[in-house]
């Protein structure tokens, strides 16, 4: 008999399943809202409903300069980002009720960006559990969560379910 999955693994697996719905070729992010052991919502990054998504209209790219640390050296790197989609975390907030979010936990495949983290910090949730890290905003997001008293942790050693990791172009 297969070993029973713990709750963290169970809900992160569902977040990865949700991420497979994303049509953005650059980033597939999934997230779920959980209260106790109850699943209250799922979301992924995507264009507003009824509007052409990245698979139909292509990604809507913007170029940004980012300060990146490599081997202790700071470097300015030009990066492209797709802004067509509403981030998974923001969709989760759009599709859930404030009442349901009070005291709930958010599982998300990727560490939230600054904007999403800022919104989550004001959404009533008490913990964020993520898998893949996002170094760009990591420091300020961590500081924000500490100030808000919101649990913020990475699932170490977690393996996403087979077939849920998309071939993304960054
Ligand atoms: Zn896109
Ligand atoms: Zn975001």
TrEMBL record:
Please give the InterPro entries that the UniProt record associates with this protein: APOBEC/CMP_deaminase_Zn-bd (IPR016192), CMP_dCMP_dom (IPR002125), Cytidine_deaminase-like (IPR016193), dCMP_deaminase (IPR016473), dCMP_deaminase-rel (IPR015517), Deoxycytidylate_deaminase_dom (IPR035105)
SUPFAM superfamilies on file: Cytidine deaminase-like (SSF53927)
The record ties this protein, via Pfam families, to: dCMP_cyt_deam_1
Residue span(s) of domain CMP/dCMP-type deaminase? 6-155
Record keywords: Metal-binding included? yes
Q: Which cofactor does it need?
A: Zn(2+)
Query: Carries keyword Metal-binding?
Result: yes
Listed A to Z, the keywords are:
Hydrolase, Metal-binding, Zinc
Q: Which family does it belong to?
A: Belongs to the cytidine and deoxycytidylate deaminase family.
Q: Which protein are we looking at?
A: Deaminase
State the species of origin. Paenibacillus filicis
Taxonomy, top ranks, is: Bacteria, Bacillati, Bacillota, Bacilli, Bacillales
């Amino acid at each position: 008999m297969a070993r029973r999955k713990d709750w963290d693994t169970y809900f992160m697996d569902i977040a990865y399943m949700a991420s497979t719905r994303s049509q953005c070729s650059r980033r597939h992010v999934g997230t779920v809202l959980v209260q106790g052991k109850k699943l209250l919502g799922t979301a992924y990054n995507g264009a507003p409903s009824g509007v052409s998504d990245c698979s139909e209209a292509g990604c809507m790219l913007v170029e940004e300069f980012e300060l990146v640390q490599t081997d202790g050296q700071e470097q300015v790197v030009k990066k492209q980002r797709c802004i067509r989609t509403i981030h998974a975390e923001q969709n989760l907030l759009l599709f859930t009720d404030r009442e349901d979010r009070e005291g709930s936990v958010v599982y998300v495949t990727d560490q939230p960006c600054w904007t999403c983290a800022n919104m989550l910090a004001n959404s009533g949730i008490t913990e964020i559990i993520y898998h893949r890290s996002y170094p760009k905003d990591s420091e300020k997001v961590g500081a924000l969560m500490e100030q808000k008293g919101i649990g913020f942790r990475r699932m170490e050693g977690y393996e996403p379910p087979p077939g849920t990791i998309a071939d993304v172009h960054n």
